[in-house]
Amino acid sequence: MAGQPPLSPWMGSDYYTPCWDSGVRDDAWLLASRMEKSEEPTPGVYWKPVPDSPIRMLDHWDNMDGTIERGYAGRSLFFEDGKFREDWQLLAQYADLLASIRINAVSLNNVNVRDKARWLITNKHGELDKVAKIAEIFAERGIATYLSVNFAAPKVIGGLDTSDPLDARVETFWRERVEEIYSKVEHFGGFVVKADAEGEPGPYQYGRTHADGANLFARLLAPHGGLVFWRAFVYNCEQDWRDRTTDRAKAAWENFKPLDGFFEPNVVLQVKNGPLDFQIKEPVSPLLLGLESTRTACEFQASQEYLGQQQHAVFLAPLWKEVLDSELCASALVCVANTGLDESWTGHKLAQANLYAFGRLAWDSSLTPQQIAREWVQLTFPDASDRAREAIERICAESRGAYRDYTTNLGLCFMCRPGFHYGVDPDGYEYDRWGTYHFADRDGIGVDRTVATGSGYTAQYPPALAALYEDVSTCPDDVVLYFHHLPYAHRLQSGKSIAQHVYDAHFSGAQKAEDFRRTWAEIAGELGSARVFDTLARFDEQLRSATEWRDVINTYFYRHSGIADEHGRVIYP
Amino acid sequence: MAGQPPLSPWMGSDYYTPCWDSGVRDDAWLLASRMEKSEEPTPGVYWKPVPDSPIRMLDHWDNMDGTIERGYAGRSLFFEDGKFREDWQLLAQYADLLASIRINAVSLNNVNVRDKARWLITNKHGELDKVAKIAEIFAERGIATYLSVNFAAPKVIGGLDTSDPLDARVETFWRERVEEIYSKVEHFGGFVVKADAEGEPGPYQYGRTHADGANLFARLLAPHGGLVFWRAFVYNCEQDWRDRTTDRAKAAWENFKPLDGFFEPNVVLQVKNGPLDFQIKEPVSPLLLGLESTRTACEFQASQEYLGQQQHAVFLAPLWKEVLDSELCASALVCVANTGLDESWTGHKLAQANLYAFGRLAWDSSLTPQQIAREWVQLTFPDASDRAREAIERICAESRGAYRDYTTNLGLCFMCRPGFHYGVDPDGYEYDRWGTYHFADRDGIGVDRTVATGSGYTAQYPPALAALYEDVSTCPDDVVLYFHHLPYAHRLQSGKSIAQHVYDAHFSGAQKAEDFRRTWAEIAGELGSARVFDTLARFDEQLRSATEWRDVINTYFYRHSGIADEHGRVIYP
Q: Pick from A154, A352, B372, B573: CA 20 to 30 A from residue B525's CA?
C-alpha cells in the first residue's frame, strides 16, 4: 500500500516468529502447536517461556465493502469494495506487527456476517483461494487464520429451508464447507460465531440450545484440529424499559451457565469482559468466573467503541489488568482489533500501545500496565529524551482513569450517544430497548442488582464477591452504582457524596485531558515524526469532548439532585 | 406508473383548472395571471371567487436520487436514480390532484440542493428540457413550476472562485442561468432558496445581507415575471447549550426584521409558521406579524416530519387555522408536500386530508377545520354510511389535539429522537447544538423567553400579544412553557398543576389513539378499498407510539418532579 509508513521500532526487524512452549503445545486443540519454535529476543523485552494464554487472538470486525464495524483506524486491511484487497506486502507487514507481540490467531471478518462475507466459506469467486493466501502469510509468522460465519448460511447461501443445527442436511452443508475450507486453506484455525445476538440468526430460532449450535461446528472442525469461538454476547435487545424484571447484565450467565459441561472440547465460549458491553468500568463478567467445564475466552476490545473511538488517548492495560487479576476461568484471550489502513495502523498514535499491551498481557498477565507502557514507549520513541518518554508513560498511566472520570463514574454506563457511542447523552439509552438503564430521578441514580431488593444479579458471583457487591457498605465505590440505586447525597467509602464525587471526577478528568494535550504539545517536537502532529489534533478533540462530557454530566447531576458543588466551580444550571 | 390507484373522488374528473379573479390578477408578479380562467363547480364544494392567498404553493423536498427529505409517502414523483422519472402520465394525474384544490405553484426539488440537483438550472444533460416538460404539464392545470437553487452554484458548478452576490461575475453567472431557463421553460415561476441555514451556503459567507442575496435573484427574474422565495429559516445550528443568551426562537426576526423594506418587490420571504420549526404547538412566528414592507409567505408542512411522519393520523387544519387566524402579514402560503409514489399519494390515507386542507385554507381561510374535514370525507368516501363518515370526521377533529396530548404539551418542543424526529427522547436535544432546550430540572421546566427575566423574545410580538405572553398569569396554557420556566406544581389557568396536566393529557391522548384505531377497525369494512386496511396498520403503529410517548413522558415528569398522579394511574417509576 502506498503511503504505508515504516514499521514502528517495536516490531519490524525486531519481530520474530513467536515461540510456543511444549508446556502448552501438548494441548492438541491448539493449532499453534503446528508452528515451529523460534527464539530471538526483542531488545529490552522479556518474554517468559510459557505464555499465560495459549491462544492470543485478534478479531477483526472488517466488512467486505472495506468498512470496519466500530473501526476507527481507516478502512480494512483485508477487504475493499466487496473483494479482497490483495495487498500481500501490506498484510505481511501487518502479520509481522502481530507476530512481534505474539498474537497467534486472527479472525478476518466481522462477526456480523452479511452480504458477500457470507460466501467467504466457499470458493464461489475464489474466496477461499484468497483466504488461503492470507492464511499462508499469517502462518509464516505463527498465526492461525479464522473466519466469522453466519449461522444461517445453510439457508441464505446453501439453498436449504432451515439452518437447524440438528438437521442432517444442515450438518452436511457445514461438513462440505469445512472440508472445502481445509482442502484449500492449509493453516485454517476455525470459526467465530455470533448467534442469536442483536438480530443475528442462531439456534434459538429452532428451539435448540447454544450447545447444539456450537457443537455442530466443533464436531466438524475437530478432525482438522479446528476450534469454534462461540460468542456469549446473547441478550434481549428488544427490552421494554418499563420491565424491571429483566436485567441485561444477567443475560450471558442465564444463557450459558446452564450449558456448562455440554460443549465439545474444541468449543471456546467467548465472553466479553464486561457483563453489559465494553464500558470503561464494569465488574468482570460472572460467567468468566463461573464456568467450570467449558473452554472460555475472555474478549477485550482494543477498538475503543465506547472509550473515545481512538480520538481519545485511553491506555487500556489498566482496565484489562483488573480483569486478568480476577480468578478468571478463561483459557484464551481475544481482542477486537483496533487496526486498519490508517498510516499509524491505529488512528491515534497512542492507540498502538493498546495493541501492544494486549499481546504482552496475553502472554504474561503478571506484567503491570506501567511496565508495558515503559516498554512500548521505549520501543516506539527510542530517540526521545527521558523527559518525553516519562511524559508519555504518565499519559498512559493516567488516561484510563481520566476517561472514566470525565465520562461515567461509579459504575454508571451507557451515557453516550445512542448508535454512535461517542459523545455524551445521559438519558440517550434510558427509554430505549437496549436494557442499559441508570434510572436517575430527582432522588437518586443507579441500578439495584442486589438479591435483597433488586434484580438478583449479584448472586451470579462467587460467594465472597457476591457478598461484597450485595452490601452497599462494602461494595467498591467504582462500581457502586452498577449494583445499587442510591441517593445523590449518599456517602461513598471515600467520604464524598455521590454528587460531589461526580463533580470532582469530572473537573479532574477534564483537567487531565487538558494536561495530556499540553504535555503532548510540549514533547511533540522531539518525537521525530510528522504523524505525531496529527496526534496533537486528536488531543484537541479529546479536550473538547472531555469538556463537553464534564459540563453535561455535571449539569445533569445538578439538575437532578439540586446539590451544589462544594467548591463553587462552574456548573451550568 | 403501474399500480397507481384511481384518483380520489374529490379530484380526478371533478377537478377543473383553477380560476384567478382579476382582483388578484392585477398583481403583475403573479405568474398565475397568465393562466386562463375556467369555472366548473366541484359538487358540494364552494370556492369563493377571490382566493385569500394569491399564491398557493407546494414545495417538494425531492432529491434526484429519488428519495424525499422528510418524505413519508414513498419515492419522488419527479426523480429517480439521479435522473428524471419521466412518468408524464403520472405527473399529469398529480397535477390534476393539485389543480383540483387550486394549488398554483410547485417547487420540484429539495431546498437542500446537492449533487446532481445543482445542475437542474442548466441543460447539461437535458435537465431544463425535462423541467420544461414538467412545467408544461403543470401549466396546463394553472400551476407554475419553480426550482430550488444552490446559492453556491457559481462556485460549485460555475467554475468561479466566489458566489458573492455583489460580484459582477456571479451576477453574470445567474443572468445566464435565468436567461437559459426562461428560454427553455415557458411557464417557469422562479426560484426557492435556502441560504445560510443548517450548513447551506449563503450571503453571510461573503459579509452580505440576505437582502443582497435575494435581490440578486429577484432583479434577474423580474423581467420574466419570476419570483424568488427566500427562506427565513436562518439560525445558529452550532449553538452551545451552555449559552443562555442565544434563543433560536428569536433568530428569524433577528436576521430578517432589520431588512424589512430592503427587498425587491418580487422577493417573497418564506417564513415557517413556528419560530423553532414545525412543532405540534408553537406561537406563530412574530416575523409573520411584523414585516410591513416585505412580501411574505407563511410556510406550513404537510409532510409530518415532527408530527408522526404519516404513520399517525394528524389532521393539520386546526393547527394551520390557528396560524391563519393571527394577524398575518403573509401574502402567500407555501406548504411542504406530503406526497410521493405511494399508492395513496400520501402514505396514510388520512394524510390526504392535509393536502386537501392546505388547498382549501389557502383559497379561503374562513373555512373551519370541521367544514374541510366534512368536505374531504364526503368526497373521498361517498358511499360510506353517515356513521362511518362522522367517525372519520371525529378522528380528523380530535387528532391534532390527541397528538399534542400524547407527545408534548404546554408549548414544550423537541422531545423527539434527534435526527429521526419520530419517537420519544425527552432529553435527546437537551445538550445538543440545535438550540431547542427545555431546561427541565428537579424543580421545573420550560424556557423563560420573557423580557423581564428571560431571552426577551416576547418583545418581538405586537404589544398586545407581547404583554399576553410576558405575563404568566395571562399566557395561554398551551404555550406557557414556551414562554416561561415554571415549577411542576405551578397552577395553570385550568387549575391543574403542570405535572397533573401532563399526566392527564398523556393518558387522554393515548386513549384517543386507541379510540381512533378501534373506530377505524369498525368502519374499515364499508370504506370500500383494500388500502383502507393498510391504514389500519398505521393506526396500530400510532397506538404503539402514543403509548410509548405517554409512558416515557409521564415517567420523565414523575422522575423529575416527584409528584404522583392524583388519579393513581400507572406511571412507571
A: B372
